[in-house]
Amino acid sequence: MIECTNKNIWYKKRRFKVKRLFVFIIFLILIVSIFTYYKYIVTEKVLSFCCEYAKICAIECANDSVVLSLNDKVKYEELITIERNNSGDVSLIQTNPIKINQINREISLSSTALLKNKLSKGVPIPLLYYLGITIFSGYGPTTNFSAIYLSSTKCEFVSQFKSVGINQTLHSIYVSVISEINLQMPTEKRTEKIVSNVLLVETVIVGKVPDFYLNGDIFS
């Protein structure tokens, strides 16, 4: 009788240990699944959403900074000097580095201030978006994702030549505002480089333009 009781006790203890081990394994699988889902689904969706929002903000701020920095519209002749030969063809195209550096600095400072101010308010994301389920992504109260900030901003000038007729070339000058955005989540950090091109001035050059100007960039 005693032997039978001991066997029952031993059997119950073993069954309890097996049950506890089974619960632990299920719990571990659940934790790993949640972590994996959060890292590869939720994190990716949230960061992608924030990147798209940052791109929109960067483009808006780049355009606004050009308007604010250039109260009086800059003229093509203030940036570029064209010299011609006796035939009237273009022999030399020169840039005005002083004026270009001045505009560069003003746009860079203005764009930095505007974008920092906009990003400091956070990215408005619906609460259910954090579930990672697309069908629920537009529902729930809005929360501000604040772990996003501007790392750096710089400006570069880019020129583009385009033939618009016989011996007529459209010369466009753009300013590229390059913003570097950092996003931070518990499981991942991402740096996004955003380039916003804004047209400054353009003019039609009459006369033959040398190929090394057409195929290159006068600001490089």
Please outline what is shown here.
By secondary structure, the chain is α+β, with helices and mostly antiparallel strands. Helix content is 45%, strand content 34%.
Q: In words, what does this structure look like?
A:
- The chain is α+β, with helices and mostly antiparallel strands.
- Helices cover 45% and strands 34% of the residues.
- It is built from 4 helices and 7 strands, in the order H-H-E-E-H-E-E-E-E-E-H.
- The chain has a 3-stranded antiparallel beta sheet. A two-stranded antiparallel sheet has the order 1-2.
- Strand 6 (168-185) and strand 7 form a beta hairpin.
- It is elongated and about 105 Å long.
Distance between the termini: 97 Å
Side-by-side strand order of the widest sheet: 5-6-7
Order of helix and strand elements from N to C terminus: HHEEHEEEEEH
Task: Bin the helical content.
Answer: 40-55%
**Percent strand:** 25-35%
Instruction: Round the Cα radius of gyration to an integer and report it.
Output: 31 Å
Structural features:
alpha+beta, three-stranded antiparallel sheet, two-stranded antiparallel ribbon, 4 helices, 45% helix, 34% strand
Topology:
Blueprint: H1 2-69, H2 76-79, E1 80-84, E2 90-95, H3 97-119, E3 123-126, E4 142-145, E5 148-165, E6 168-185, E7 188-206, H4 211-214
Antiparallel strand pairs: 1-2, 3-4, 5-6, 6-7
Helix pairs in contact: 1-3
